[in-house]
Write a structure and sequence with these properties.
Layout: E1 9-10, E2 14-18, H1 21-26, E3 33-38, H2 58-75, E4 76-86, H3 88-98, E5 103-111, E6 126-133, E7 178-179, H4 200-210, E8 216-219, H5 226-233, E9 237-242, H6 247-254, H7 257-268, H8 276-284, H9 296-304
Parallel strand pairs: 2-9, 3-4, 3-8, 5-7, 8-9
Antiparallel strand pairs: 1-2, 4-6, 5-6
Helix pairs in contact: 2-3, 4-5
The structure holds S-adenosylmethionine.
Length: 306
């Protein structure tokens, strides 16, 4: 790394810089990052604090996005993964721009349950997470498996998994491009600005899927630092930046115990067919304990479905 200002926070795995991400990224070496994740302001006229305008003309907003996307693409290693979280209105246009330099992998729909209806429009119930790769194949693609969705009263199956319910993979369900289990983060501690923190669960999944220990993660829009916390907990190196106050991020790193506790709970429910809670319910209501046998025939049949 060269020409960039001094970090305001150095942790075991990462560096946090205060300033405009465009300038900071320009000081980062080309092809040095394994995973790029961006959750920019959505241009919805929100207040982020000093130096951030969130009420640009459409063309201005897109031009600004193109600039930091170009930097993101430049710093990404061949085989590196690029994620962009935004509302569908912007991502549909930005996907077409990014496609000029990277290969499209997925449009992941992140279900949201806390939005308000918009008059004359369909009720918005997903955000878009674009997933691209530099070059033909990602260096890392290890999607975690998820627990089966069960009835919250009795723990019984509520979905038909292609009629193979007795032969499910004991490690859980294949990750799809619709993520319905990402909780919203609501807290009142951000008094002067809207930090719009994402769930640690979202970043845990993205980092699981597309990076490994020791990889370098770059997120140009720090906010409350969820990406950096996830990277630190997962032993990935990280480069962070935030134009407005970085106090929330620093504070979060000083008291990481809460995040760590939540993270440990999350990890108990990754790559398992049933969560602990579901297993207790299933036992109580006489459902089997999930010790399914995955036959070779079933694997072939499952593959044929996609
Ligand atoms: C949607 S929030 C990110 C929230 C973050 N993902 C989290 O989970 O906490 C976007 C952040 O980008 C910051 N930001 C906006 N423009 C920026 C710029 N040019 N350079 C660096 N940060 C910027 C805003 O201040 C805001 O904190």
């Amino acid at each position: 790394m060269s020409k960039i200002t001094k970090p305001v926070l150095i942790t075991e795995y990462g560096h946090l810089y205060k300033g405009d991400c465009l300038q900071i990224m320009r000081g980062i070496k080309s092809e040095s990052v394994d995973l790029f994740f961006a959750d920019p302001p959505f241009n919805l006229n929100k207040s982020y604090g000093n130096g951030v305008r969130d009420d640009l003309q459409e063309s201005e907003y897109l031009e600004w996005c193109h600039k930091w996307i170009d930097e993101g693409v430049r710093v990404l290693k061949p085989g590196g993964s690029f994620f962009l979280y935004n509302i569908p209105k912007w991502n549909v246009q930005l996907a077409s721009y990014i496609s000029k330099s990277l290969n499209f992998r997925s449009w992941i729909a992140i279900e949201i349950t806390f939005s308000l209806p918009i008059k004359g429009r369909l009720y918005p119930s997903h955000y878009s997470l674009l997933y691209f790769v530099k070059g033909k194949k990602p260096n890392t693609f290890e999607p975690p498996r998820l627990p089966m969705q069960v009835c919250r009263h009795c723990g019984g199956e509520i979905k038909d998994y292609g009629g193979y319910k007795n032969k499910m993979n004991p490690k859980g369900i294949n990750l799809s491009d619709i993520w319905t289990d990402i909780p919203p983060v609501r807290h009142k501690k951000y008094k002067n600005r809207e930090a719009n923190a994402l769930s640690l669960k979202l970043l845990d999944r993205i980092l699981d899927m597309s990076s490994k220990e020791g990889d370098v993660i770059l997120d140009p829009f720090g906010g409350s630092g969820t990406t950096y916390i996830a990277a630190e907990l997962k032993m990935r190196k990280w480069i962070g930046m935030e134009i407005s106050t970085t106090d929330e991020i620093t504070r979060r790193f000083k008291s990481m115990a809460k995040d760590k506790e939540y993270y440990d709970c999350l990890r108990e429910n990754v790559n398992v067919l049933f969560t602990k809670k579901a297993l207790e319910l299933r036992k109580k209501h006489g459902h089997h304990n999930g010790k399914y046998v995955l036959s070779e025939t079933n694997i072939t049949k499952q593959k044929a479905l996609f």
